[in-house]
Specification:
The protein contains 13 helices and eleven strands. It has 342 residues and is of the alpha/beta class. Helix 3 links the parallel strand 1 and strand 2 (68-73). Helix 4 (78-91) crosses helix 5 (101-110). The chain starts with a helix and ends with a helix. 45% of the residues are buried.
Length: 342
């Protein structure tokens, strides 16, 4: 009888310990937490800001202890992206997240039964991720980081007029990685629009970050007025080397890279990430990814910034007031063009 009483007492103590010290069953508790697996194209300021925006939205909602977030970089390597996607699949996460086009395509192919949210994808439809931005289906939704292309061309021509005020037409270098779907899509879409504004794009393929300085040197011999770097992870990862080698100003489509460029315009990448985080929360709350429309930056999300040091290097005078006026004028011209078509 004494042995039985001792045994019962021991069981009671264990039961109380499980109630008051839940950390003892930590593995079971942690497995019940939402798990988000994020795969980004590469590590550079734009995508890092996007990932941070996603994490901020999620931790504000769930706290650090209420959600598990795993982040990996594909280092611009499709083979590595596939390996990471397979690893994510085995972990059975609540949602997978692609930051950039290439990892999003890889996750969609590898994890078709897991809800997929993307961020910082230039052309979701052109990349084959969705058929239509509304009710995208295919267990996917997300946030593009691209402003309307007609707005971008207006900004480019207004900036080029400040860079080369005596010119009536402009040649614009466009370095890109042919492995980047974003860049291939942009060349196809932007070339005819730029031509309408008197801008000729001069594309230059770059296969790795090691080739970036040589590309800048090669392009700079073509009598350009400037270069345009747009959402290309390979170029953005080595943007400072490109800008330092260039003999003409560099315009970036990512305001987070302004310390490595001359001028930059675009939406806040942090905000893009935060918006993607809100989509993730909606799915965790019961929404289906396929029911959530693809989101795009609005005209109001536009920011234009300058690197004062680099402006001086090229002897360009451009005040904050002038940048604000360029923003205002680009939006006006874009809205006027839309109204004229309606």
């Amino acid at each position: 009888m004494k042995k039985l009483i001792v045994s019962l007492s021991t069981l009671a103590v264990i039961a109380l310990a499980l109630v008051f010290f839940p950390g003892c069953s930590n593995d079971q508790n942690s497995s019940a937490l939402p798990k988000i697996c994020i795969l980004q194209t590469a590590n550079h300021p734009a995508l890092d800001k996007t990932v941070q925006g996603i994490k901020t939205s999620l931790t504000n909602k769930y706290s650090q202890q209420g959600i598990t977030i795993v982040t990996e970089s594909a280092q611009s390597n499709p083979t590595l992206a596939k390996q990471i996607a397979e690893k994510f699949k085995r972990q059975n996460p609540s949602i997978v997240v692609g930051v950039g086009t290439m990892p999003t395509q890889t996750l969609q192919a590898t994890c078709p039964n897991i809800p997929l949210v993307f961020a910082s994808v230039t052309d979701p439809k052109g990349a084959g991720l969705v058929k239509e931005p509304k009710n995208p289906k295919n267990n996917i939704t997300g946030v593009s980081n691209t402003l309307p292309l007609n707005l971008q061309t207006k900004i480019l021509v207004l900036l080029l007029k400040k860079i080369a005020p005596v010119n009536t037409s402009f040649a614009l270098g466009f370095p890109y990685d042919p492995k980047e779907p974003n860049s291939l899509s942009l060349i196809r879409l932007l070339t005819p629009l730029a031509k309408q504004e008197g801008i000729t794009l001069k594309p230059q393929a770059v296969s790795s970050t090691a080739e970036v300085p040589q590309a800048a040197a090669k392009l700079s011999k073509l009598g350009l007025q400037a270069h345009f770097v747009s959402n290309d992870s390979t170029i953005l990862s080595s943007l400072i080397n490109f800008t330092q080698t260039s003999t003409v100003p560099v315009i970036s489509s990512d305001t987070d890279t302004i310390n490595s460029a001359t001028l930059a315009f675009g939406p806040s990448q942090t905000k893009v990430g935060q918006t993607a985080g809100e989509l993730i929360i909606s799915i965790l709350n019961g929404k289906k990814a396929s029911e959530l429309d693809i989101l795009y930056p609005t005209l109001e999300d536009l920011e234009i910034v300058a690197n004062e040091k680099d402006l001086k290097r090229f002897k360009i005078t451009l005040s904050n007031a002038e940048l604000a006026e360029i923003k205002k004028e680009a939006i006006r011209l874009t809205e006027t063009k839309v109204d004229s078509k309606s």
